Amino acid sequence: MQTSDFDYELPSELIAQHPPEKRGDSRMLVVDRAAGTITHRHFSDFPGYVRPDDLIILNDTRVVAARFFSNDGTQEILRVEALGERIWKCLVKPGKKFKPGHTIEIGECNGTVTAICEEGGERLIEFNIAPDEATHGHLALPPYIQRPDAVDDKDRYQTVYARESGAIAAPTAGLHFSKEMLAPLPHAFVTLHVGIGTFRPVSSETIAGHHMHSERYVLDPGVATAIRTSGRTIAIGTTVVRVLETCARNGGGELVAGSGETDIFIFPPYEFQAVDALLTNFHLPKSTLMMLVSALAGRELILEAYRQAVEEKYRFFSYGDCMLIL
């Protein structure tokens, strides 16, 4: 399939630049795969779609402040991996400046570029003292949010159940939940630390030419057992889908607990082995996440859902509205 098969037109004014006034104050487009129908609801209606024997699975990763600016504000780095306390693998801006030997000052810390990674172009930077996240770190809001991170982002770009630090970006489908809504619903957690792949578009013309970056995940034995013995498994976000489908693949079709790294790439046609329903935000055109939701609901139905969402002026992407695929 062609990458262009997953394209759609999106007016820029529909890209949400700020979260809604309060969590859960969002619209929810509901796609019923069996009936082939699309209906327009609100996220407050979500509990009504959950059956007593269902199990909701959420990603409890916690976003870290991994973006740092030089003292003069002209350079920035995004830590994608800490190879040691003082050695970081980073995305950098502007790339032309960050040649081996180049230095960056962040507060009292000095970092020197020691190498350029061949595959992705990331820089290895060695610091005399590691920059402190609390003092100098910023959240790496996605590029389509065209503003600096603000004080309220520290709360709103984090799920209410985040606990395992390690993500660069938030598992945004979970941002809709308040503690009050989640508490009475049957739920459990997996962990997947959202990584560099979030910032990498599909550059190849065909799907087959794209390679996913790996991300670290954990599925505990107790959660795996609960999923196997429940009714429907409702994944909250594509990151949960990636964990569960990886673990089902590792078990030869049976969901097994485990941890490690996954570079699973889900696109049509794909037979899901662990996920029955999905709550997700709207995704960028021609992205791997558009391909994933198309694998679950069918490309034509998804594109029609997106067409209607644009027509009805839904809010898109991280701080936007959501879609429930049943």
> How does the major sheet shape up?
9 strands, mixed
The CATH topology of the largest domain comes to QueA-like
CATH class call of the largest domain: Alpha Beta
CATH architecture label of the largest domain: 3-Layer(aba) Sandwich
Mean pLDDT, as a whole number? 96
Q: What is the β-strand count? A: 17
**How would you classify the helix and strand content by structural class?**
alpha/beta
Classified in CATH, the superfamily of the largest domain is: QueA-like
List keywords for this structure.
six-stranded antiparallel β-sheet; QueA-like; Thrombin, subunit H; nine-stranded mixed β-sheet; 326 residues; single chain; 17 strands; globular; 2 domains; alpha/beta
Describe the protein in words.
The chain is of the alpha/beta class and about 325 residues long. It has helices spanning about 135, 155, 180, 220-230, 240-250, 290-295, 300-310, and strands at about 25-30, 35-40, 55-60, 60-65, 65-70, 75-80, 85-95, 105, 110-115, 125, 165, 185-190, 215-220, 235, 260, 275-280, 320-325. It folds into 2 domains: about 5-65 and about 145-325, QueA-like (3-Layer(aba) Sandwich); about 65-135, QueA-like (Thrombin, subunit H), CATH 2.40.10.240. Helices cover about 15% and strands about 25% of the residues. A hairpin with a 4-residue loop joins β1 and β2 (about 35-40). α6 (about 290-295) crosses α7 (about 300-310). It starts with about 25 loop residues before the first strand and ends with a strand.
List the helices and strands and how they pair.
Elements: E1 27-32, E2 37-42, E3 55-59, E4 61-63, E5 67-69, E6 76-82, E7 87-93, E8 103-106, E9 109-116, E10 123-127, H1 133-136, H2 153-156, E11 164-167, H3 179-182, E12 187-192, E13 215-219, H4 221-228, E14 233-236, H5 238-250, E15 258-262, E16 277-281, H6 288-297, H7 299-311, E17 322-325
Parallel strand pairs: 1-17, 3-12, 3-14, 4-11, 14-16
Antiparallel strand pairs: 1-2, 5-6, 6-7, 7-10, 8-9, 9-10, 12-13, 13-15, 16-17
Helix pairs in contact: 6-7
